[in-house]
């Protein structure tokens, strides 16, 4: 007689019942084992091993050949939700297909990244969609819907959003703290995550490396207070790699790893990504935390239940493993996927400027020049290209190889030291790095030791020398291979390109007398000559550089002989701006500046095509060149797409997903997360950008008319008509913005305008369409710090329709009956220190290790908080401040002022109440000055002044 399967394998039972049944069958040791990224098999129950985490930012990454779509910022530039949803479906389908033949491919996808592109110098700019929370969330909803699939119960893949929360810096990323005040938290950072969670497409989130308000994200109370309140669905929180250990090792937030691991688990981290495949370290910490009473069985069961919930939804415990396990649905590198990759690359191209140069006629003789002209770049989160198209490839295919000339613009040099000329051994001219090998292990890109190292001798090798800016250079051998340094320290011409977690292909030329020391950026050592070959060592060798030809001379020759020039410039995604490395400037590297200037001097019909992971400040190029384009690195079809736009086969309709500033001086400090106070992004920036958010031109023109706005109940209905008034069919990205009532903004900094909705539409020449949008009235709101709530102010709002945030074609006013912005009831409710309207010289820190916030002066100096509209009623006579540390708190309101002196209270979390007389009445502004190394949590006001020394109340975290 055959035993019936256990309840957890019965797909007819409710999910919760199945999860509970399986959980009950696991021992405590087995449960703990499931909490590491690499969860082992439970053979006695027939349960397979499971790995959380498969990178799939713009295609399946690191697991071999796959369809490679444009970078995430490029997908954001399409402003096309439907297209991105289709890409998500394709990526998830390929993940399933790849898993069918390789069980190392996971179905818990760590994608997309929804961190807002607040600051363009962030090294991981390429991973986000936009600086705007609404556009970011719209694209994220589309991508995760495609990844998840449409089945009501079964998921094609299980996407995890990255990185919770307020994460925009690689500099000191595991120890720096983002100071995020309540308005920025609610109006900006949380909104990027919420829509995808609300839509039911998300299996979980990944906390970021950094701290927010002095507390590491991996023990953030926001996971409980916000994220998990948005949905009844179980969400799996997966740690970032190594972050659990950082809580002790680099952040020193806890004294022991057992305390740290327990705190993270209790806060809501369910899967620990730490120590690679060695799960014993984490499971040992959890077991010891359990033994020490820092954790309960219930804490562990809660996390295990979330882990199992994801696996059930993926169909793992169903007969046949669910509908998405059907081999008939396993599509990989299909014609449809290839066409989708090309369409996405075409839609991502943004025409920044065009004075009539583009599109180029069929018979144009083109010089395509520049360091990226014959490159199809991948990045750290790309899959291995099955096929590739560079701008040179695309233009030759489109215009004919005989009509396209090429110059890469690299400097041609020879390098000599006392031992002779630097040279690549003749026996290695055919060595190549295999792309499939790289995909399976990215370290192989720079780890080859099977090739002979460089030598020095009487015969020189000519190298291509490129200055990428910031003191970073690469050297390329005649066969195209890059000089690289492997673990054995020898220098070889062995790499297809820069890459790896620590890039081994970049060098710095350090002036030394009449020559140079060649510093290896990856190790900090210097290129030196030894008996067995050229290697990196502590003792440097002095080299002289003989220039055979400057890159700009070759570019000028090619440009002079052409009818038009396309200069392709930008970045290598592994150099000067990537994960672990922020940029230091918006400027284009000087080498590339020289190239476009040389091209223009030789031929004024020059266009600059920027192919990059982030914005540049190219004001000079905008002034002097007739046309500029931008696209993110566009994946496998990048070159074909760019060529079709240049030829006019496609009218460009990409739109900028972030502001392009004119100069570095427009930027705040990288670590300043207060977009309101420091006037960041198009929402608050008071200057004139080089190119505004939402900007993008095309080869047609569009008219806007008949804007109508009305509200019914809790919905705002807005409609307008768009007409293609040009002579060619083209896409238009219609954008709807809102602007809040100015009369309600006294003392309240509202955005200049904010995106409410968008739609990309294709219209034939002369065609029109009516666009209708429905918005919840709550979308017009803001976080009212005076009353700690979301509110919609009453008054006259403006609906703004147009082609960009600064190209507004139509405006309509509408009166909204919102909630009046009442004064702060400070006499009854007091003041939370973080509820300020303005600040200078302060930062938000953790109130305790587990919850709450406080404010302190930066570096223990002096800072000030401003609270507008404080209602003291018919009068107060005293004030109490809840503080930790020592120093003084000054309160100033009009001509009334007092100082509360604070003796040192002990530790950073040892709070006490201190009081002083403070007589004030009516509604007025209050300034609070903090002096010294103290933390202010709250202020309370009393009807009478204190009659005696205050009673101290201590709270310890």
From TrEMBL:
Span of domain Fibronectin type III-like: 732-805
Domain Cellulose binding type IV per the UniProt entry, residue ranges: 824-943
A Pfam family per the record: Glyco_hydro_3_C
Keywords: Hydrolase, Signal
CDD domains for the chain: beta-trefoil_FSCN_BglX-like
Family: Belongs to the glycosyl hydrolase 3 family.
PANTHER family: BETA-D-XYLOSIDASE 5-RELATED (PTHR42721:SF3), SUGAR HYDROLASE-RELATED (PTHR42721)
Name listed for the protein in its UniProt record: Glycoside hydrolase family 3 C-terminal domain-containing protein
Organism lineage: Bacteria, Bacillati, Actinomycetota, Actinomycetes, Kitasatosporales
